[in-house]
Specification:
Elements lengths: L1 H20 L8 H23 L7 H26 L8 H13 L1 H27 L21 H21 L5 H6 L6 H4 L1 H11 L4 H13 L5 H13 L4 H11 L3 H9 L9 E2 H10 L14 H14 L4 E5 L6 E5 L2 H13 L9 H14 L37 H10 L9 E3 L8 H7 L7 E3 L20 E3 L20 E3 L2 E5 L3 E5 L1 E2 L12 E6 L5 H8 L7 E6 L3 H13 L6 E6 L33 E5 L22 E5 L5 H8 L6 E4 L8 E4 L9 E5 L6 E4 L9 E5 L6 E3 L4 E2 L9 E5 L2 E3 L3 H8 L5 E5 L1 H4 L14
Helix pairs in contact: 1-2, 1-3, 1-13, 2-5, 3-5, 6-10, 9-11, 10-12, 12-16, 14-15, 17-18, 20-21
């Protein structure tokens, strides 16, 4: 409980510090109350820091006091954010301040009411501080400073080496059923010399964990590796507990490992309490929720680190320590796409949160409301009741079971969205709701969104995969909004043009549509006209730029110096391409991902013209300043208008480019060879119209780091050949045939499988026949016996394949 309370107080202190810096704007007398609250909460925060380092359990009296501190921190945070909301104009400058004066005058009564609440809050803070002394809740003794670390354990290579040692331990145990010398290899890689100081103790613990609790022993070794300040005394204490509680070895080991997490990492792990029933959890969604809830802090010495990068570090740490395990990974390498928790870890998280009065004693208000809203949405009727039911996934709207819009049912009960709105209307004035995820919810109307837009504290709003069609202008009231997700919706495109959200970091939109067998389009929303005011924007994809607005809107995008991911949809005129390339050049230092969809042909496409992402004049364009840190590139031209066989020459200089997806680019064999020379390319997706020739051949020395190759209905008849020493790290090949034609596979259709030394899986999708059983014979002769996956028309073409990742994925 001390961990979560400390996080709440820490967040409040940052807000109070900012308020004091702007005290000249506050109503008279309030700044003194705020200073008093800050000083008191600062002292309480120091006390809580001591509590988080205690090894003893917190008694009931201490837990009750910490719950009071946590509640008052949330209330103070809510009051301060509401008070400061209307004090700052959304723009800087004298005229912006003049335009903001009506808002200041209009909100004077509301701010006076909040000022009175702050004065009452001051008295309450004083009472909580005196109550600690009155009941003898004393400050624990400070722990001695940890000893310095002799080994460098922070590098990814050292961690990978340690994890490989643990994998050997697991493999040896599975094959022999007894511990092997591999345990010693893992122990010797610990960051301090435990083999000498506590080798005997670790051996005793190993005896109690192996063979029945191998995973517990691995988790313990991970904790000892990640926390470089462990002591022999702590391990002896753990051994004593295992002797006394032999039947509960996994739980005692997890308690020990949990104690080695930092305060904020504990809070992030406790946050998963709200999602214990989910089959999988999206990494990006989880990290953004952590940030929205204020659970993430930057690492010391990394002032330039973004909050989302800090959240990624927290996620990776929880995975490394074994509390969270990978469910799916991206095609480009080891990066985790989604995760879940083992049943034993789930039970532990429940127990630890209950013991810290996080669940059993009542959830904090902002979590409590989130859970209630989730349960309401979860209870909606299913559209197809005959289908096998699966848990509704709060993290990913695509995993939600489709819902039917419903009005009041026969029993007179309200539609779930009406219940949600009713609950939101009953929120107390100073209440904050940071996260609202309605992904997969049907029956969501504009009137519901108007009510949602009155909850001004929302930082994360997901309408993904809902049937919402209009976005009210009241969306601009959500001035704290950081993430707006409207993917897989039929939202009116112009509804986003009027969005002005100064704190917006992620705008996610777009839905792929297939019209017949040939045309694949991306429907999405328009670019916000004043996107330049959202200077914190990091992700902007996918947004449409209309002709006549390309230059002014892209000029604003060029000023977003924190933009990491950009996805645009526009027509293919020469001027449009020129403006786009100029913008990309301006973002060369920050851009990591780029997606460009050309929706209409250039004016002279029928007279020999074409589309290519290159400035032919070579001036004032991307050639002089390419996006040198670009990692992902997605290109789709209007069908039949690309310059055949050509790739923008600046692609060859992208040393960090790891993922490429092409549509309708009419790539030639020479273009494929250019891609093969990219040093960092791990994932290549060739979709419909991306390649012009009948043969795809990976030559010797090409694609040195390629791991995933997708060939999706490129042309009716095609042959694939892998020469010796081509793509030495290729692990997975997915080949999707034209669904209108039966594919006959025979010798030579796909050749050189034996040359792919790292191949693990071959997936063939479509209507095909292997006349000579050639594929199975080739895989059987492969030294690693790759897996063959097959999908046929009756099942494959009813929906997206397992390998297909939406263009709007982030």
């Amino acid at each position: 409980m001390a961990d979560l309370t400390h996080s709440a107080v820490d967040s409040l202190l940052g807000l109070l510090t900012g308020a004091i810096k702007n005290e000249f704007r506050l109503l008279g007398g309030v700044q003194g109350d705020i200073q008093f609250i800050k000083d008191e909460m600062d002292s309480m925060n120091g006390f809580l820091l001591h509590l988080t380092k205690m090894q003893t359990e917190h008694d009931d009296q201490l837990r009750a006091w910490m719950k009071q501190v946590r509640d008052i921190a949330y209330i103070a945070d809510d009051c301060m954010e509401l008070y400061m909301r209307d004090l700052r104009p959304t723009e800087s400058g004298f005229w912006a301040l003049i335009r903001h004066l009506p808002v200041l005058l209009r909100t004077v009564p509301a701010r006076r009411r909040l000022a009175k609440k702050i004065r009452k809050l001051k008295d309450r803070v004083r009472e909580v501080g005196e109550r600690r002394l009155r009941y003898g809740v004393t400050v624990p003794e400070a722990k001695p400073k940890p000893k310095p670390v002799s080994k460098d354990i922070t590098t990814d290579k050292s961690r990978e080496k340690f994890l490989r040692a643990l994998e050997v331990v697991e493999d040896d145990h599975r094959s022999t059923g007894v511990p092997s010398p591999s345990f010693s290899t893992a122990i010797h890689q610990l960051p301090y010399d435990l083999a000498t100081d506590a080798g005997t103790v670790i051996e005793k613990i190993r005896v109690k964990c192996v063979p029945d609790h191998v995973e517990s022993m691995k988790m313990l070794l991970r904790a000892l590796y990640a926390y470089p300040h462990g002591t022999k005394e702590e391990l002896e204490s753990l051994e004593d507990k295992l002797n006394r509680r032999a039947a509960d070895v996994p739980n005692e080991v997890m308690v020990f490992c949990y104690s080695k997490l930092s305060t904020h990492y504990k809070s992030c792990l406790q946050y998963l309490t709200a999602f214990l029933d989910e089959a999988s959890i999206s990494r990006t969604s989880l990290v953004r929720r952590w940030v929205a809830e204020g659970l993430v802090v930057r690492d010391k010495g990394k002032e330039l680190q973004t909050m989302e990068e800090a959240g990624e570090c927290c996620f990776n740490e929880l995975v490394f320590r074994g509390f969270v395990r990978p469910a799916t990974r991206v095609d480009t390498g080891p990066k985790i796409k989604s995760c879940n928790m083992e049943s034993s870890v789930r039970e532990f998280v429940i127990a630890i949160t209950q013991s810290e009065n996080f669940v059993a004693g009542g959830l904090p208000t902002h979590f409590d409301y989130q859970l209630d809203i989730r349960k309401i949405v979860q209870g909606q009727p299913q559209q197809q009741p005959l289908q096998r039911q699966r848990p509704w996934n709060i993290w990913d709207g695509l995993c939600a079971v489709p819902r039917e819009p419903q009005q009041d049912d026969d029993d007179g009960k309200l539609h779930p969205m009406d219940k949600v709105v009713q609950k939101l209307k009953n929120l107390p004035e100073e209440y904050r709701l940071n996260v609202l995820d309605l992904g997969g919810c049907k029956g969501l109307k504009k009137c519901h969104l108007k009510s949602i837009c009155k909850v001004l504290s929302i930082k994360y709003l997901s309408l993904r995969n809902t049937d919402v069609s209009r976005l009210p202008r009241a969306i601009n009231n959500l001035w704290k909004l950081q993430t707006l997700d409207v993917r897989q919706t039929d939202l009116h495109p112009s509804d986003t043009a009027h969005i002005v959200l100064p704190n917006l970091k992620h705008l996610l939109a777009g839905s792929i549509n297939r019209a017949g067998d040939e045309i694949e389009s991306l429907s999405t929303v328009q670019m916000p006209r004043k996107i330049g005011r959202s200077t914190k924007t990091e992700v902007l994809r996918h947004v449409q730029i209309l002709d006549g607005k390309v230059e002014p809107e892209l000029q604003q995008v060029g000023h977003l110096k924190q933009l990491r991911k950009l996805g645009v949809v526009l027509s293919g005129s020469e001027d449009n391409i020129k403006h786009l390339l100029r913008t990309i050049s301006k973002l060369s230092e920050c851009l990591r991902s780029l997606s460009v969809w050309i929706t209409a042909p250039p004016p002279m496409a029928g007279d020999g013209g074409g589309v290519t992402l290159d400035n032919k004049e070579g001036t004032d364009g991307i050639s002089s300043s390419p996006p040198k840190y670009l990692e992902s590139l997605n290109i789709k031209y209007f069908k039949g208008t690309s310059t055949s066989g050509s790739l923008p020459p600046w692609i060859e200089g992208l040393k960090l480019l790891s993922k490429i997806t092409l549509r309708d680019t009419q790539l030639s064999a020479n273009g494929l060879r250019i891609l093969g020379k990219l040093e960092s390319l791990c994932c290549l997706r060739l979709r419909r119209g991306s390649y012009t020739e009948d043969n795809i051949s990976l030559k010797k020395g090409d694609f040195p780091k390629l791991q995933f190759l997708l060939i999706d209905q490129v042309c009716p008849t095609i042959r694939i050949a892998f020469e010796a020493d081509a793509a030495p790290k290729l692990q997975r090949v997915v080949w999707t045939f034209d669904k209108n034609k039966k594919m006959e596979i025979m010798a030579g259709t796909i050749s050189g499988i034996d040359n792919l030394r790292s191949l693990k899986e071959l997936e063939l999708n479509g209507d095909w026949i292997d006349r000579e059983d050639y594929v199975n014979q080739a895989l059987a002769a492969h030294p690693k016996y790759p897996l063959l996956r097959c999908s046929f028309p009756d099942s494959f073409f009813t929906g997206p394949t397992a390998h297909e990742v939406s263009i709007t994925e982030t």
